[in-house]
Amino acid sequence: MTPAPLAARLRDPRGPLFFPVTAYRPDGSLDLDVYREHVRRGVEAGAAAVFACCGTGEFHALLPEEFEACVGAAVAATGGRVPVIAGAGYGTALAVRYARLAAAAGADGLLAMPPYLVVAGQEGLLRHYREVAAATALPVIVYQRDNAVFTPSTVVELARTEGVMGFKDGLGDLDLMQRVVSAVRTEVPGDFLYFNGLPTAEQTQLAYRAIGISLYSSAVFCFVPEIALAFHAALRAEDRPTAERLLDGFYRPFVELRAQGRGYAVSLVKAGVRLRGLDVGEVRPPLHEPGEDHVKQLAQLIERGYALLEEGA
Questions:
Q1: How far is Cα 243 from Cα 238, in angstroms, rounded to an integer?
Q2: Would you call 129 a catalytic residue per the annotation?
Q3: pLDDT digits (tens, 9 = 90+) for 199-228
Q4: What is the pTM of this model?
Q5: Diameter of the chain measured on Cα atoms
Q6: Which of 298, 278, 217, 261 is nearest to 33 (CA)?
């Protein structure tokens, strides 16, 4: 049976969107065996999609050949059970190259991240993402964050661009996002998808749902999938008491711990995966490992999160 188009597979996911970390050996080289196991466990735990080699997966730290190998490993590990969306970024020429590598590795779509370093105007940003979308037949999700911030009119033009299927927000400006959603709904009626892409997106997802954005990233799913699944199920069931219990007892303390170090949105997640028994290695520089005390706090928080699930059982 031919799989449904990517947008249809993502529109109403039955589980979290999984952003796996990238596994390295002690010498810093890629460990594809551990990476495949990490992806496989996530899919079997209930992930609705795998976003490979994106922010949590240290896209910035991967050589092109490592990127292609990781995407291919994710595709193999999922076995077609869920779609694989790969990161693509840097300047236009490199973003196009990564897009083509992802297509060659069997990815189902692309998450197009901000251009490297430059702060471009709206016209340049639009041209950049249009060239990335035209480079392959893979559908593209454009990621707003850092130096890639869009006006509602530019997002309307992106929504009109062949190959662009969605928009992920990592900025957190809800006023801007409400105007984006309204403008696209008015000017380009259809099935354009929106994603909450803030770090630990669960923390803000109740607010995003209020403006019609139900899709979100879940890095927490990497190391405590049961908690991420319980929160996702609570949102789908409109079970606010459960959602708030998990927010108050697990997600808010995790976000506060994450704020204790730069880069912890990645390195703390990787530490969590190691705490749960899968040695995915350390982060590559310029990121750094969490302090020992912070790792101990994370271990205690994981225990607390599972206790909250028992309380709600």
A1: 9
A2: no
A3: 999 999 999 999 999 999 999 999 999 999
A4: 0.96
A5: 53
A6: 278
Distance CA(121)–CA(132), nearest Å, equals: 17
Q: Which residue out of 98, 168, 251, 270 is catalytically annotated?
A: 168
* Separation CA 53–CA 70 (nearest Å): 7
Parallel, antiparallel or unpaired: strands 84-88 and 49-52: parallel
Strand-pair partners of 166: 141, 193
> pLDDT tens across 26-49, in order?
999 999 999 999 999 999 999 999
Cα-based distances in Å from 265 to 19, 94, 101, 127, 218? 12, 25, 26, 30, 11
For residue 29, give Cα distances in angstroms to 66, 280, 283.
9, 11, 11
Phi, psi of 245 (to 5 degrees): -60, -40
DSSP the chain: -PPPPHHHHHHS-SSPEE-PPPPB-TTS-B-HHHHHHHHHHHHHHT-SEEEETSTTTTGGG--HHHHHHHHHHHHHHHTTSS-EEEEE-SSHHHHHHHHHHHHHTT-SEEEEPPPSS----HHHHHHHHHHHHHHSSS-EEEEEBTTB---HHHHHHHHHSTTEEEEEE-S--HHHHHHHHHHHHHHS-S--EEEE-STTGGGGHHHHHHTT--EEEESGGGT-HHHHHHHHHHHHTT-HHHHHHHIIIIIHHHHHHHTTSTTHHHHHHHHHHHHTT----PPPTTS-PPPHHHHHHHHHHHHHHHHHHHHH-
Query: Which one is catalytic: 129, 143, 194, 216?
Result: 143
- Any catalytic annotation for residue 143? yes
